[in-house]
């Protein structure tokens, strides 16, 4: 069983066939599918699943904090099941491929006190951008 499915079961979330297939599609490392990609992959496993059910399920998973919604430069939102492990994102500026990265150090500690302007900073989002190997070679 996937990490996401285990977390959802632990929360007592009702796993209908539709919800289960969406969670199964989101299983894996470096998964950052759009809602349409989730729907296409889910429909390959469960042909009767509707687009609305996929969108609603993704919304619920985000609300529960079990999936992160990743927005990048006006592209379609992507869904990241790696919600419980601190990480940043590396994004290809051309094709939009996203990879999870785990840089060393503490970006929160790297912000000098005089640059916090009195804010009680609670989280940091860092996004690395560049070209993936395929786009760099093209």
Termini separation comes to 38 Å
Average predicted local confidence, pLDDT: 90
Listing every helix as H and every strand as E from the N terminus to the C terminus, the arrangement reads HHEHHEEEEEH
Largest sheet data: 3 strands, antiparallel
Shape: globular
Widest sheet, order of strands: 1-3-2
β-sheet strand percentage: 15-25%
* Helix amount: 25-40%
Oligomer: single chain
The count of β-strands is 6
CA radius of gyration = 17 Å
Count of DSSP-assigned helices: 5
Going by helix content, strand content and strand pairing, the class is: alpha+beta
Low-confidence stretches: none
Itemize the secondary structure elements and their pairings.
Layout: H1 3-11, H2 17-25, E1 33-34, H3 35-45, H4 51-63, E2 68-70, E3 78-80, E4 88-92, E5 98-101, E6 127-130, H5 133-137
Parallel strand pairs: 4-6
Antiparallel strand pairs: 1-3, 2-3, 4-5
Helix pairs in contact: 2-3, 3-4
Provide a descriptive summary of the structure in words.
The chain has 138 residues and is of the alpha+beta class. The N and C termini lie far apart (38 Å). The radius of gyration is 17 Å and the shape is globular. β4 and β5 form a beta hairpin. 18% of the residues are buried. The strands form two sheets. A three-stranded antiparallel beta sheet has the order 1-3-2. A three-stranded mixed beta sheet has the order 5-4-6, with no helix packed on it. It is 34% helix and 15% strand. It has five helices and six strands. α2 crosses α3 and α3 packs across α4.
